[in-house]
Structure prediction request, 210 residues.
Amino acid sequence: MAQILKELKYSLYLIFHPFDGFWDLKHEKRGSRKAATVLLGILVLLSIFRTQFTGYLYNQEYDGVSLNILSEFTTTVGTFLLWCIANWSLTTLMDGEGSFGDIFMVSAYALTPMILIGFPLAFLSNAMPLEYGAFYSLMNGIAVVWSGFLMLSGLLVVHQYTLSKTILTSILIVVGMAVIIFLGLLFFNLISQLIGFFIGLYRELVLRIL
Prediction:
């Protein structure tokens, strides 16, 4: 437990020193996949917490009764794993040096700013009038941009890419995620139609026999 807490605390150093931080994360074993999994779990809790406790003025899509924890979990973890899978698939073909475990770990640590800003902002939103909406949006923007910058930095360091190749790869990863989603939806649609066909065929046979 003490070791995991130490590895989690290292994320506070990493967000301010990304290049040294990610290098040490991979090569000096300053972090771990267990700690990365904990960070991902905290991000899931943040997603649920923000849906439930963000002030009404900034959370009008939530009606107070429709919280679906399974949906929040699936969306958060699914998007994260989709990023990791697309990242690993493309960088393997583009001479990347990072393993899937490295990508998982680096990506989870890169989300630290969203966690650090997200929880306090959800609390503060209950006391902020609508006039402070610009501040709310600004803080959300800082969290996303900061984590995005860390994602790029981690990609650069873990795969030993140049800046231009890192940016190109990031764009291709996003495209790859879209392709995976499209193929997944297409696959499930075909399976659904196939199941429907066999069910219809079964019912037709039963009606004819009876």
